[in-house]
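Quick check before the chapter quiz. The format below is the same one you will see on the exam, so make sure you can read both the input and the output lines.
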Amino acid sequence: MLICDEFIAHPVIALATHTTASERFRTNWDIRLGTTAARLALGIVAMYLLAHDARLVLIVPLVVIGLHFASANQLRERQERDAWHQLAQSTEKFNEVDLDTVLKEAVKRAAELFSADEVDVEINSSTQQSRLVRGEAENVRYDGPPNHAPGVGGNVVCAPLESHDGRADVGELRLRFRRQITLSEREQYTLRAFAAALCTAVRNAAAFAEAQRLSANHAYAAAHDPLTGLANRRQLFAVGDELLEDRA
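Here is the expected output.
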């Protein structure tokens, strides 16, 4: 059982999840070691009971069931903790105010977090043209209008980019897998939380870009004549002061 668990099952899991075999061996090694030691001790106790009173072996299945539930609960708690830690790390990259950085990081982080073969982030905004960013954990392969993107296949899991209250909807996040897949309840909740954080990041980046555009327009309007577009008296005085300061 130990040979099957460690040297057959883990490489297969690594292949299916696009991770390395060494990473799978390191994952939860302490829990696996404790479970293996407990199974070995249980086997020795069972042999001892068989040698003295075979009826006592009836308690072995109860111990096995208890051992199974204890290890399963440990693994579940650790997976929950790791999942939220990964989600926090992924959404941490959304603190940028540059929209290009936010979208490209979202594609890479979503591919890593959900082990997706490919990720699409499509945004639709009333203030700018629709945009699609597509890629995987290593790189971004397409960035442009959605109707110009090359066709792709696979099984798709979609999540709208909307706020927690559902009032804002800026696009859609799509996870693409080569195989049939069904997300667990925890993974579905994680996907919704990731999409909500991405929606907020996209809105913040768009608001920052709009604020920069308005600031540039106001600065230009304050320094140029609205009719001719030439520099006004204020701009001429400012340039003159700069020239005089340089000569001084």
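If your answer matched, good. DSSP finds seven helices and five strands in the chain.
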